[in-house]
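Hi there,

I know you've been waiting on this one. I reran it after we fixed the sequence typo, so this is the corrected version. Both the input and the resulting structure follow.
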Amino acid sequence: MKRTISGTAGSRADGRDRAATNPELTEPTYRTWTPDPGIRPTGDGPVDISDLPGRLIAVEGTDAAGRSTQIALLREFLETRGFGVSHTGLTRGRLAGDGLKRAKAGSTLGQLTLNLFYATDFADRLENEILPALRAGFVVLTDRYVYSVLARSIVRGMDEEWLRDVYRFAPPPHAVLYLKVSAETLVPRVLTRGRFDYWESGLDFQEERDLYQSFVRYQKRLLKVFDDLAERDGFQVIDANRAVDEVFLDLRAAVERIVASMKGANA
């Protein structure tokens, strides 16, 4: 169950007490790390998908960037043109997905343990969902990839090099489509849902008294990390501040280029 906070921020004394004694909840420090030339920060491992007939497309972006809406539109577009489509996303694996959701609902795990949990979930989905679909010639649309986990953890002060080593087995997707949106655009979108998410507001480690300010501060920091990842890992950046149909036109054009060489499709 997704932990959410609604209404006023209320008392945060317990959280501040935990932050004072737990270094994982204190103000994060940012560390600059430059990967070795020619080596992808993820994917320098044993899994190679370059010769498989399918295509792996990751749609990345922060909360309320419009990922779910755009993936649904892309799936419909691809299926009407004869492509087999498989859809996956974070915390959806059978092995660890439910346990990870329960752990996050309790907010009791440290960042190191949480990342190992995420890595377990991803490894399960990679072996049992993603790779079989790619071998069968499907287009795999994934709602977030390991880059989201990297971004969230880097903001919280985790060592970037350690994180990339943990997820080194993750094959680089054929494309990462990054829905880039400003914090100013995110706020009204989130407010239409009537709540701020606990994790997406950074309430697990920030000490902001005001819930709104905590959300804005966290999202701005997260967007900065995503921008760094986009440049470093070669994301295709899509302006997601626009209307849904305008964003979809750009996504559709990008996807058409990616699947153009696939066999047996009515593109």
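Quick highlight: The mean pLDDT is 80.

Best,
R. S.
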